[in-house]
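Narrative summary of target 7.
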Amino acid sequence: MKPPSRHLLLSGICVGIALTIGKLLLDPTTSQRQYTAIPLPQALPLPESQLLESQPIQLPQAESPKYDQILSGQKYRYIRSGIPIQLELRDVVNTGGNIHKLIQEQLSWKANPPKFQDVQTPIGFYRRFTQQGNVYLESCLSPAGHSFVTPAQFRSQLYQHIWQPDRLLGWAIGQNSLLDKRCLWVQLSIPTEKINSGSTTSNNQKFIANDDALAEQLLEEQWRSIASWWMSKSPTSGVR
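Modeled conformation, tokenized:
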């Protein structure tokens, strides 16, 4: 009897992988795994900003949720040309990518953020809105460096990496899972009232906090720096 041909073996392997991926897509709970918290730094290299304070975010002591579990968090206070900047980072696992749900459940905001705007960038989306006297920028950053704010955006970036050869090989030998449902939840904010009208941005423009365009420009500059840092330090770069 002839041994099975290489083509038959390869076909069998491909069928097995396809069936496994199909099960993951149809039953996402199959892909849940244990995660290790990523230590968040005491300071981040934000452009032209000075760190004033940094402290851990106190996590709820209640039983951990099945989804959107926060493993660690850090809050920061910066100042840039007299403008105060608040930053909060949270390491979220088993997420569904719904930034609205995260805000509602984790921050206990009863009212929906009014007139939010989802802004598309080369690395994905962030959400911008005004709430409780502040202009906010919120997003979730995947380990691969993609940014999303809705479940549809999250699923799109999640599944497009399944067929990458290095990811399939790592999954086959038990080094990683096919679906990495982790994200870095980023929240940046500045006050909406007029602050230090003599302050300037990096290109010497006058900055007034109630000027929406300049507020968004400042927040996006900080957010892009955080995204660059995360891409260099996230689990896909070797940090576990």
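Strands lie at 50-56, 69-80, 83-93, 117-121, 124-131, 134-141, 147-148, 182-191.
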